[in-house]
Amino acid sequence: MEAGALSNPVLRARRNLTDRIGDPLLRGLSGLAAALAVAVIVGIVYEVIHLAWPAIQRFGIGFLTTNDWNPNPLVQRFGAAPFLYGTVVTSLIAILFAAPLSIAISIYLTELAPERVRRPVATLVDMLAAIPTVILGLWGILVLGPFMRDTIEPALNSVLGFVPIFGGDPSAFGYLTAAVILTIMATPIITSVTREVFETVPGDLKEASYALGATRWEMVRQVVLPYSRPGIVGATILGLGRAIGEAIAVAQVIGGAYLINASLFHTGGTLAAQIASQFQNSAGLQKASLAYLGLILLVFAVIVNVIARVIVQRGGIKDIDVTETEAAAL
Amino acid sequence: MSANQHSLLLDRGNLRRRKRFNRAVEATSTVATVLAVAVLAIVVGSVLLKGVGALSWHFLTTPTALFGESGGGISNAIVGSAIIVGIAAAMAIPIGVLVAIYTTEFASPRIAHPVRFALDILNGVPTIITGIFVFGLLVEGNKQSAFAASVALAIVMLPIVARTAQEVLTLVPGSLKEAAKALGIARWRTTVRITIPTAAGGLITGALLAVARVAGETAPLILLSSIFGQGVLTKPGEALASIPIFIFQASESPKPEAHTEAWAAALVLIAFVLVLNIVARAFYARSRKRMGA
Description:
The complex is a heterodimer. By secondary structure, chain A is mainly α. Chain A has one domain (64-326): MetI-like fold. Chain A contains 12 helices and 2 strands. In chain A, helix 5 (133-160) packs across helix 6 and helix 7 crosses helix 8 (216-245). Chain A is flat, with a radius of gyration of 25 Å. Chain A starts with a helix and ends with a helix. By secondary structure, chain B is mostly helical. Helix content of chain B is 78%, strand content 0%. Chain B has 12 helices and no strands. Chain B starts with a helix and ends with a helix. Classes of the chains: A mainly alpha, B mainly alpha. At the A-B interface, helix 2, helix 3, helix 4, helix 5 and helix 6 of A face helix 2, helix 4, helix 5, helix 6 and helix 7 of B.
């Protein structure tokens, strides 16, 4: 049919013409789309700096170390220190929980679980990443928070209360509750990368280890973990990036205090959460200061992501598509 | 058998200790996995248990009540979410697929690599920052709008769509493209008529995952579409209600009735997101099978 059409010289000329236009057109359109993706990044950086400019001029680099956030029109003193502290503390605790948890889950899914349950269970863990964070936050406010206040925090306090971070009164909202929510968010992300990395460990290395009489754990420690180290580190840093940037769930459960507090039970704030809770109701210098917080967060997030991806790629694990993984891995 | 051989075969001393430690690690791994699945079950179970009671036809088809009152529903939020996410998808899916076509079909590795890297960085940008960007671009000096929210969500979707599309486009067998080339068919025709249809399942997967991801996205919407009028509104030029914003605002309320409504809205959202994820996986599995991967 097509060949018949082409034997007609008029139609053939028309086809040649569409091909002459079609090729450069598709190339141009797709190239434009790619340029747009790059331009968006540049635009984000420009726009955040632009919005933050009044605050950058007013507070300079000292903004980073100012432990104050006072929107009172007569004072108007803003600093990032309480939120930097909150971001670092909550995401570090989250990673401290999530990384070992993820490694343990990956060991189970690649070495221990019966073949039949591996895929379904892996899918369930991935599904944890699909839960919208606003729902995790809702659950954090109404279920996890009261549980932390009534059970976990009093227990921690009675055993470790002499350490300042476990001192103070238990409360439903605070650094620790936020850290637990972030742990729930980071675990499936780290797990799906470490699991895939574990699966790339050559079978003959594992068998060699077993043949030398190693127990399963000894095999994992001597073969799987060293082989996967770059992947594990990269995955963990990616999880960290996700934890640093989460605004909503943290804003819902951290309580929104403006000062650094030693107790993990106490309310606090993070960079992202502070922006989420104040941006739409602010103006002038306060809004610029919030954008300044955003700039710090952006720098943090970009650095963390670049490091993670470089490590993952250096480790020779090119096939792992981290983006896809974060969208709830396939 | 001598006693010596016995000590090699039986779990004694060192071996016993090693095996015990091994069992402890195995138990820990299993418990960790059970814990992760249990958390999923607890969160989804909480939403189901607490939301199902308030979920009714009335709740789904009535707009949100006036501020401070209860007894309303989420019809305006459902319509708003559909419009915001729909426009975002209409922007992000074609552009994302085009980016993938560029990097897999046209660009040299020297250009494709930086584009890929840019997409990864874009994916790592916190969504609240994307919100600030679009705020500065479209809302500042203007007013909030559903369109602005769509632009922000499209930026969140773009790397997800583009990266999954790249993945599946590279899976399309080279022999198909070579066959087309041997027949003298132009590249754009090969791409449109052969490569894309072959990869369709995977492309749909990426699109669905991206939609699932942004359907629950809240941070940019707070900045871009959170102050809206009463009733079911439909104009993208004005701020529209959405399910995530409804859940967020109701969760911050001190009233128990608001919490019940938040759970019910969460049930609607979580059902949508999980179903979309499952459908996406099904498409992906089918498409991989078709391409023999």
